[in-house]
Amino acid sequence: MCPACKHRMGLARISPGKRGFEQRTFECSTCHRLETVSFPMDPMKTDALGWLAGDLKPPR
Questions:
Q1: For the chain, which residues make up each domain, given as ranges?
Q2: What is the pLDDT, as a whole number, of residue 19?
Q3: 40: Cβ–Cβ under 8 A, 6 or more apart, which residues?
Q4: Are 40 and 20 a contacting pair, CB within 8 Å?
Q5: How many CB atoms lie within 10 A of CB 35?
Q6: How far is it, in rounded angstroms, from Cα 29 to Cα 7?
Q7: H or E stretch including 22?
Q8: Model pTM?
Q9: Could you name the domain of life of the organism this protein comes from (predicted)?
Q10: Rounded to a whole number, what is the largest CA-CA distance in the chain?
Q11: CA gap 40, 23 in Å, rounded
Q12: Which residue of 6, 8, 24, 55 has the smallest Cβ count within 10 Å?
């Protein structure tokens, strides 16, 4: 919700943030206010997934 006019905000863009986070920018369609929030990234969708696809296996 927009803190200024209380209308619903839409996702405008997603950009990289600090390691393990992404910046999501929301825009209000009524008053055009922009809000940027940091969200943790899904660890299964990061470059760490390459480790799982490699030769690294859990102990038996």
A1: 9-53
A2: 83
A3: 20, 21
A4: yes
A5: 15
A6: 8
A7: strand 21-28
A8: 0.64
A9: Bacteria
A10: 58
A11: 9
A12: 55
